[in-house]
Write a structure and sequence with these properties.
The structure is a single chain. With 664 residues, this protein is of the alpha/beta class. It has a domain of 330 residues: ABC transporter type 1, transmembrane domain (ABC transporter transmembrane region fold), CATH 1.20.1560.10. It contains 20 helices and ten strands. The strands form two sheets. It has a six-stranded mixed β-sheet, with helices on both faces. It has a four-stranded antiparallel β-sheet with strand order 2-1-4-5, with helices on one face. The longest helix has 54 residues. It is elongated, with a radius of gyration of 37 Å.
């Protein structure tokens, strides 16, 4: 019996492949184009060759019991009287020895042909695995940001891993196990009908029916147990990955013991479920062994009576035993094939549900590439909601002129970052229109749209590779000299050169080997290298200290010169030179104008500005007091909290700020 596999099922996904009899056939039908690829004649030839070898191997398999029978009958005819030397020679070159040698040869031929068949078909199986895994991986990237925000990374990678293994299982089982088993079973039944009579065939058919019926019922019973085991396994895996990805947070709060207990509780559920799964497997194996042994004993007893009656020979007794033992292997494979395919369907049903899920954001039919001769970005009465009953943006309109800089500010939750996601078309709008140089972004290809925009996000996540790899990600065909020039503009070249490995320095998982400011500068360098006509800066300097912020701000100003730039700002000091500042509150534009105009209005922006200045001054005073008193453990309040403080400072009974008309 084979080791138990661990398929996975995630509920709540539609459409999905259920683990029923229809699903088994449907899965094989879905996989057939990958087993018999229309564009690969070489792989089709391998499939045909494997089937020919399969048939020859099964004929050799059926011949093995007959050579055993003939050798036994020949030996049974040899008397106990001594033989002369000439008789020994005749005996050695006649039936007994020849049949024994034929028996050994057939077994060798059977084994060799089977292994050659498996080796020939391996390329077909693994090519099918690769193509389907590739298709699923590509489709995951095509799905919307909403899908990935709702998923847990650990669970999604397990879906891909198990689905890949399930595909391999089904492809190999159908061709290398199921087809050979059916052929061998048919040959054995035919031989027994020819060599013996209908009673033996009846015993075999009853044995097969009971065996397969028991296997089916026991496997159905085990499916629910295995699902619970897989769910608990996935849950434990997700918790482990989540905890390790948040390693620093765990350390900040001394939560190692709590995380370990949380993981152990998940593993305890897995322990209980897996124990039940392996116990049920033992019950299945024991029942199969009992059913087969009863059938084997019945056939051999029948043959023993016929030997006593003189109608059968001892060789026939050996033959029926060998044929039944020979039958046990395909019977065992039939049970195993059913279980493995059934479990593999469960493994890949979530993968199929992902493949069946259409992306939320699609290119319009006949979509053309975006042309950006100037780079004018216009939001026209844009409305958007992540959930229908919770609108985020409520009909906002503004324009970013070509080569100008427009900043968007506002309290947390006002919808600032949503604007950047909508411009990238991670989501489709609930209403309104976004255009670039008059072209609706919903009518152009997503690829060309995103190639035209450079993004420096607030939270920079790097690939677990080298600094050079992460910078070059902005433009893959860039030369090393261009990569290094971009690093110089982002003020990170000096740090890189101080590292022993320079640009080949590994940044670690999500870039954790770098400081927040270093990661941010890598992201800036990456965008500089991309060289897009439109820039999107989402809190681009939020992770930097004041000195570095000034350097990066200077670099960003040089890079954004002549480019259309939209800035999502938290630190108001970074956008005082913006051509226009848009102030959002509760999804609406409540103020707009230059820095000086907004201060003169003495509204929400002025309140936020004053609060930030007060926080900065308080930090400076506290720092001076700390130096004077040499108090080592005093931490000044961060200016990064000023925007939230400004929003909190507005009295709850203050009159609301009227939204600004788009034409103002």
């Amino acid at each position: 019996m084979t080791a138990d596999r661990q398929p996975h099922r995630t509920s709540g996904q539609t459409p999905h492949v259920s683990a029923d009899r229809e699903a088994l056939f449907r899965t094989v039908i879905h996989l057939w184009p990958y087993i018999w690829p229309a564009d690969r004649a070489d792989l089709k030839g391998r499939v045909v060759g494997a089937m020919v070898l399969l048939l020859i191997a099964k004929l050799a398999t059926i011949a093995v019991p007959f050579t055993f029978k003939w050798a036994t009958d020949a030996l049974a005819g040899v008397g106990s009287a001594p033989m002369a030397a000439s008789d020994w020679l005749v005996w050695a070159i006649t039936a007994p020895v020849l049949m024994t040698l034929a028996y050994g040869f057939m077994r060798i031929l059977m084994a060799v042909l089977t292994q050659v068949r498996d080796g020939l078909f391996a390329k077909v199986a693994m090519h099918a695995v690769r193509r389907l895994a590739y298709r699923t991986f590509v489709h995951m990237h095509e799905l919307s940001l909403r899908f990935h925000l709702e998923r847990k990374t650990g669970g999604l990678t397990r879906v891909l891993e198990r689905g890949r293994n399930g595909i391999e299982t089904i492809v190999r089982m159908v061709i290398l196990q199921l087809a050979p088993t059916i052929i061998e079973l048919a040959l054995i039944v035919g031989v027994l009908m020819w060599q013996f009579d209908w009673r033996y065939v009846l015993v075999i058919l009853v044995t097969v029916a009971l065996y397969m019926g028991y296997t089916y019922q026991a496997t159905e019973w085990r499916i629910g147990i295995r699902r619970k085991m897989n769910d608990s396994d996935t849950d434990a895996n997700v918790k482990a990955i989540d905890s390790l990805l948040n390693y620093e947070t765990v350390k900040y709060f001394s939560a190692e013991e709590r995380e370990a207990q949380r993981y152990d509780r998940a593993m305890a559920r897995y322990e209980d479920a897996s124990t039940r799964a392996y116990t049920s497997l033992a019950v299945l194996n024991a029942g199969q062994a009992v059913i087969f042994t009863l059938g084997l004993a019945a056939a051999m007893v029948m043959c023993a009576f016929e030997i006593k009656a003189g109608t059968k020979t001892v060789g026939d007794f050996v033959l029926i035993n060998s044929m039944m033992i020979q039958l046990y292997q395909p019977l065992n494979f039939m049970g195993m094939v059913y279980r493995e395919i059934k479990q593999a369907v469960i493994d890949i049903e979530t993968m199929f549900s992902i493949l069946a899920r259409p992306p939320d954001v699609l290119d319009a039919p006949g979509a053309k590439s975006l042309a950006v001769p100037a780079g004018v970005v216009r939001f026209e009465n844009v409305a958007f909601a992540y959930e229908p009953d919770r609108p985020i943006l409520k009909g906002i309109s503004f324009e970013v002129p070509a080569g100008k800089t427009v900043a968007v500010v506002g309290p947390s939750g006002a919808g600032k970052s949503t604007i950047s996601r909508l411009l990238y078309r991670f989501y489709d709008l609930s209403g309104g229109r976004i255009s670039i140089d008059g072209q609706d972004i919903a009518s152009v290809t997503q690829k060309s749209l995103r190639q035209a925009i450079g993004m420096v996000p607030q939270d920079t996540v790097l690939f677990n590779d080298t600094i050079r790899y992460n910078i070059r990600y902005g433009r893959w065909e860039a030369t090393d000299a261009e990569v290094e020039a971009a690093a110089q503009l982002a003020q990170i070249d000096g740090f890189i050169k101080l590292s022993p490995k320079g640009y080949e320095t590994e940044v670690g998982e999500r870039g954790l080997k770098l400081s927040g400011g270093e990661k941010q500068r890598v992201a800036i360098a990456r965008t500089i290298l991309k060289g897009p006509p439109i820039l999107m800066l989402d809190e681009a300097t939020s992770a930097l200290d004041s000195h570095t912020e000034k350097e990066i701000q200077d670099a960003l100003e040089r890079v954004s010169k002549g480019r259309t730039t939209l800035v999502i700002a938290h630190r108001l000091s970074t956008i005082v030179g913006a051509d226009e500042i848009i102030v959002l509150s509760q999804g609406q534009i409540v103020e707009r104008g230059t820095h000086a105009v907004l201060l003169a209005k003495n509204g929400l922006y002025a309140s936020m500005w004053n609060r930030q200045r007060e926080a900065e001054e308080a930090r400076e005073r506290l720092a001076r007091a700390s130096d004077e008193s040499a108090a080592p453990n005093r931490n000044p309040p961060s200016a990064d909290d000023a925007l939230a403080a400004a929003a909190a400072a507005i009295p709850s009974d203050a009159p609301p700020v009227a939204p600004v008309d788009a034409a103002e």
